[in-house]
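Proteins fold reproducibly. Take a sample protein:
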Amino acid sequence: MNDLPWPLKALVLTVFVVLYYKYAKSALFALCRRAAHLLPFGRRWDASERGSVLELAAAGASHVLVVAVLVLVTGIDLTRFAAGFDRPGLIALGAAIGVGEVALGSLLCRVLIEGVQAAGRRRAGSVAGGVRNGVRRGARGEVRGARTAPATAGGAVDGAVESGERMRQWLGLSRGGWIRHHLKTMEVVSLPLALALTATQVGSEEVVFRGLVLSWLREAGPVLAIGISCLLFTVMQVFLMSSWRAAMFPVVGAIVMGVTHSVLFWHYPVLIPLVVAHVTFFLFAVA
């Protein structure tokens, strides 16, 4: 399929990403949840914990299979991107990139949440202001006007409390969907095993969206190839999330990481530091 023009290659990749990340993984996770009730596990794990471990293990295994299928489809030799195992400097650089991406992603998420909450407060304030103005127009003395002042201060305190509660709700939502099986797995299995399962999944994503997608679309030029790769990587994050609020954190992180990693890989086609950065980002994000 290497003879296909790049628009058809982009279409093939889009169909593949949607079919696997939306439908195949949904069916796979449903199967894992059923198996969690049937397979013999230690009694110290409840059904939710068993299901999460199975989901993460199945996701990692299926990601490796996806890499193998895409290698056959694209004909790309991944060994040319595998340098860096013996260079500690590249590994340290990858970890530093991951930490920086976590910081930037967290800042952007905070700004977005504050913006959404501020817009909500303005709408609520407009309604409350109209009500207060109606009350004041009907007031007959300064005493009644004075009595409304403490209520306004109390409303400000209530607004601050409500804002903090909404922030906690956002954070709680962000740990749902597919992120849940990472969190549960890190709680119930040993740290080395949790790291291995997580690294297998997110490392495979780097191979897919940087090593394979970018390389296969290279003839389209840097802007289109990087744009398509980042778009597919970002859209993939939305699948299997419960709501747009829950998906906001993964989407913002995917934009930050997708742009950074794609630009780096375009100029320096080495995957090892990008895999390390992705794992570092993920560990900080779910910790």
User: Anything to note?
Assistant: The chain has one domain: 6-77+86-106+176-286. Confidence is low (pLDDT under 50) at residues 148-153.
